[in-house]
């Protein structure tokens, strides 16, 4: 495997795919590391990566069965099957089933979409309390009336779960005719733009606090740009794409590299070479045991249709 990793060409086929296939658990899912208990996030990412080449493979049939078996009755998914608590992973699990292209999963996908549209944060409650204590506009200067999606229902909105929910709902034709879905999509997009840092990227938290700009991060920025890719001609999008391109060479993490490449391609930029960097990191053991990082790398490098770069399909 090291010899394949030393060669940038074929990194996805020679290193990533074998790693993922060997790491699949007997129950059909994947853990965050080889041998770990199956969880929804790494399983969904592995499906996205492997489905680009062969969505009907036996391995993905087993993975889809595992995902379907973990869905709650209300359409949501827990982060881990041993807990029943709904989580942000719901739209991402839906994306994995879409990538699998299995008609038998259609009801589960629609149920997940309904849950996603009806899932709300707890912002309305805590905003009222905070507003009584301090003038938030002097602190963060953001629009507190906007709501995205949260990691856990009933808590605050965050960039990444909002982006994943938007990407999922944009894939479903039925959502284009649903007033509830349209309203949620519009507010979710407004939330992302409102939380954008002045320099062009997105940070994990607030874009500005006490007049000081938050530190934009490549992975978070990539997710936001993926969710907003249909608006690539907007000034905010152009500024964010430029920020990501300017900072691309300084990205070190495998996941951030992969996500940045995916986002730039989705926004009309030519593919950026990342195979050499990924191969070097892999040989150095920097993401040798990470199912997430390997899946994201494979997804970014493999050719074929996918469910994250959806603008062309929508047209």
Describe what you observe in this structure.
By secondary structure, the protein is mainly α. The longest helix has 16 residues, at 179-194. Helix 3 (40-51) runs parallel beside helix 15 (291-301), helix 9 (159-170) packs parallel to helix 11 and helix 11 (218-227) runs antiparallel to helix 12 (235-247). It has a single domain (31-272, 303-314), classed as Alpha/alpha barrel (Glycosyltransferase), CATH 1.50.10.20. The chain has helices at residues 2-6, 11-23, 40-51, 58-70, 89-100, 106-118, 123-133, 136-139, 159-170, 179-194, 218-227, 235-247, 254-266, 275-283, 291-301, 311-314, and strands spanning 208-209, 212-213. A two-stranded antiparallel ribbon has the order 1-2. It is globular and about 50 Å long.
Topology of this structure?
Blueprint lengths: L1 H5 L4 H13 L16 H12 L6 H13 L18 H12 L5 H13 L4 H11 L2 H4 L19 H12 L8 H16 L13 E2 L2 E2 L4 H10 L7 H13 L6 H13 L8 H9 L7 H11 L9 H4 L1
Antiparallel strand pairs: 1-2
Q: Strand content of the residues, in percent?
A: under 5%
- SS-based class: mainly alpha
By DSSP (H or I, 4+ residues per run), the number of helices equals 16
Any idea what the shape is? globular
Write down the oligomeric state.
Answer: single chain
CATH architecture: Alpha/alpha barrel
> Level of helix content?
40-55%
What Rg, in angstroms, do the CA atoms define?
19 Å
Summarize the helix and strand pattern as letters.
HHHHHHHHHHEEHHHHHH
- The CATH topology is given as Glycosyltransferase
Low-pLDDT regions: 1-8, 125-137
Give a short account of the largest sheet: 2 strands, antiparallel
- Summed up, the domain count is 1
Distance between the termini: 41 Å
Overall number of strands: 2
